[in-house]
């Protein structure tokens, strides 16, 4: 059950229409998870500074069970997410950061319980 949060200083009007849906599909493919289990949030117009510059930028937070827990996994994921984000957002790679957070099933609540018991 992957969670993706894309935060950017870009104005909402500058984001491509359907970005959240495409990010959902791409994340499912990259992480090898069913698309219906992926949750995506896109936040725009945020005051952000990356590398001491307030130039347009973005950061992607990727949290999931079992697929973001090693450097080897995340190196491959990172390359694919960067390819997608640079094209979709029109930003250079040095204006984008990605943070990966491994989750355990007991850390995700769903249907009145946690994933451990589903």
TrEMBL record:
The keyword Lyase applies. Gene3D superfamilies: Macrophage Migration Inhibitory Factor. It comes from the Eukaryota. Transmembrane segments: none annotated. It is found in: Cytoplasm. Signal peptide: none annotated. GO terms for molecular function: D-dopachrome decarboxylase activity; phenylpyruvate tautomerase activity. One of its GO terms (biological process) is melanin biosynthetic process. GO terms for cellular component: cytoplasm; extracellular space. Its EC number is 4.1.1.84. Its main location: cytoplasm. It is an enzyme of class 4 (lyase). Homotrimer. Belongs to the MIF family. This is D-dopachrome decarboxylase. It comes from Gopherus agassizii. The lineage of its organism: Eukaryota, Metazoa, Chordata, Craniata, Vertebrata.
């Amino acid at each position: 059950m992957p969670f993706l949060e894309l935060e950017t200083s870009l104005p909402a009007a500058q984001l491509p229409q359907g970005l959240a849906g495409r990010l959902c599909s791409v994340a499912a493919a990259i992480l090898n998870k069913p698309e219906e289990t992926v949750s995506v949030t896109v936040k725009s117009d945020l005051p952000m500074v990356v590398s001491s510059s307030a130039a347009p930028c973005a950061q992607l937070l990727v949290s999931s069970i079992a697929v973001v827990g090693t450097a080897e996994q995340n190196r491959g994921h990172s390359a694919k997410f960067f390819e997608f984000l640079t094209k979709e957002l029109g930003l250079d790679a040095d204006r984008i950061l990605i943070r990966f957070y491994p989750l355990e099933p007991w850390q995700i609540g769903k249907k009145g319980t946690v994933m451990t018991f589903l």
